[in-house]
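Supplementary material to the annual report.
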Amino acid sequence: QKEVEQDPGPLSVPEGAIVSLNCTYSNSAFQYFMWYRQYSRKGPELLMYTYSSGNKEDGRFTAQVDKSSKYISLFIRDSQPSDSATYLCARAQGGSEKLVFGKGTKLTVNP
Amino acid sequence: GAGVSQSPRYKVTKRGQDVALRCDPISGHVSLYWYRQALGQGPEFLTYFNYEAQQDKSGLPNDRFSAERPEGSISTLTIQRTEQRDSAMYRCASSSQLNTEAFFGQGTRLTVV
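Predicted assembly:
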């Protein structure tokens, strides 16, 4: 079983929709959970990270970790065409070293 | 520099040749990471350095792969006797210290023919 499972999509939504992206992980020792955004032909860029359980909000983005079910989510409110990208979830035990990524979900927001 | 710089951006090599991929991290960043990303997949960890010390090389696929960072700045990932299965995007990232945000470079697209 892969350590981080992510549905690759693709996911296509109309502008203004609420987007929900999800991952599951298998190892309870993980402490840090990240969401990276990767535009076509670019390197991944950190969008949000959370430590342990709970929610973290940043503008239109909310990251959520449920350690009891080993589930991590990213919600995008009022989605924009500029949000079209591949979203990668990742986990780490101690921080940014040795990140383990999911496959990524390709999102398209249609104007 | 302004960001993580990798060179070359594209490399086509014949099977059996050795290749060296270079990473120039953000100035002052002490931690440097190498990842490999296949098409349609997330990045896969290869190795990382703290200053010049290679802290973890557990992700290197086999002994044809090696990496160094002799002066704690620029790093080179070397693949000896390349094989077609080595074809991928090789990405470097750096962070100001451990447990902080890692910034990724544009990557080197390696094609082994």
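DSSP finds no helices and eleven strands in chain B.
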